Amino acid sequence: MMLIYVNDIIVMRNDLEKLNQFISKLNKSFALKDLGDLHYFLGIEVYRDEIGMYLTQSKYIEDLLKKINLEHLKPCPTPMAVGKPISKLDGEPMSNPFVYRSAVGALQYLTNTRPDIAFAVNKLSQFMQKPSKVHWNAIKRVLR
Asked: What is the pLDDT of residue 60?
C-alpha cells in the first residue's frame, strides 16, 4: 500500500523483500529519505505491536482544545444530547461564526479515527451558514 500527500509518502507491505525492492526502484527515480517506522503523519499518531497498527489523534484533539480555549471541558458519555433535535432556528446567532466553522472542520478530520462522532459532526455541519450559541454548545459536547 502506498499513501502520498504532497511530498510525503508512506509505503507498507507484508513482504519485506518486495518492500525493499519497491523502495529501491522509487529511489532510482526520486530522491528518497527513509525516516524509519511511521509514528506520526498528518495529525494521526501510529502505534504498532505484534498484533497490528493503531491510529489515534490524541495530540490533534489536545491541540484543537487549546486552540479554541476549551481544554477545561469534562468528559461526556455521548456526543449529542438524546431526544433534543437541533434546528437552524435554535438560539441567537454567534458573534464570530468562524470559530464554529473551524471547529466543525477540525471535527470532520477527527472522524478518521473517531467514527463514533461522525453523525454528530455531520448534523452540526448543517448549520455552518448561520451557527447559533445552541449549535456552539453542541460542538462543545462533541469535544468532550
From this structure: 92
